[in-house]
Amino acid sequence: MNRIDRLTAILTHLQSKRTVRASELAARFEVSLRTIYRDVRSLEESGVPIIGEAGQGYSLMEGYRLPPIMFSREEALALLVAEKLVEKSLDDQSSKFFKEALIKIKAVLKSSEKDLLAEVQDTIQVLKSSSSKIMNRSSKAFQAILQAISEKKVLSTTYVTFDPEQMSVRDLEPIGLFHSYEQWYMMAFCRLRGDYRTFRLDRFSKLQVTDISCSTSKHPSLQSYLDKIASEQKLHQIILEVPDGSLKYLVNSKYNNGFVSEERVGNKTVMTFMNSSIEGFVRWIIALGDMVVVMEPDLLRNRLAELIGEIKEMQRD
């Protein structure tokens, strides 16, 4: 990148946030801090009103731009969600181009919208994504949760648990959203249970933002909560061997069960999963019993044999 292009890109980057540190610019353009200082000084000498604050970074004087379009609060949040999804969904090169384009789009946002994105940036994460539809029935809940997070408001909800399937009314203080295995989840403080819980978005039959403010601003961050879950869960590596003719029956559900990778071996596919629940996994594959071979672990193979035996006994009765 020549210096003229870099100066233009720096100006665009400065418009994408309220403040930008020199170290951030240096890392993005792969140049030294001294070069960034020199470039900023050149922009100032050309008449660009850059404000430098010690320990804070650079910012542009409010109003220095002529935005061709204006974004609503909801559209600004949608940009952030798209950025998180694309980061995990595209190849490295396409992801890089998308981020460059997004920076240019963010440059026209008002300061209040930039502040909003900075505030909710770490409350949304994508742990694993696939090419299939990922929002489906969760979309309305998703927008309400984003609103509640940004406004720090309590959510009034009706939630249907999975096992056993029961409906409960809960007031929730949302902390963040994360996407994993083709589903969106919300981490929230549940006032009913007095503790933090994880909720799957498509299991809300009602979700409404209230006028009640959250009880505290000292909730743990989303990342610290996810780290805690990961440390508490013991993940089992599961390897299945699947003949070509049976592979199609696993395509739509493999991501919901911890799919990691697959490898072609002759006329079969060896699939690797990471899953914390042997019982849950075995009850999934029992429906595919004549289509897959459990290669490991022995714990899963033995439990599958036990469950088949239990089914036989039930049928005799």
Automatic annotation (TrEMBL):
Keywords, comma-separated and alphabetical: DNA-binding, Transcription, Transcription regulation
PROSITE patterns: HTH_DEOR_2, WYL
Record flagged with keyword Transcription: yes
Stored SUPFAM superfamilies: Winged helix' DNA-binding domain
Domain HTH deoR-type residues, every copy: 3-58
Annotated coiled-coil segments of the chain: none
UniProt cross-references to Pfam families, sorted A to Z: HTH_11 (PF08279), WYL (PF13280)
GO molecular function: DNA binding; DNA-binding transcription factor activity
Annotated PANTHER family: PROTEIN PAFB, PTHR34580
Name of the molecule in the record: Predicted DNA-binding transcriptional regulator YafY, contains an HTH and WYL domains
Organism whose genome encodes this protein: Algoriphagus aquimarinus
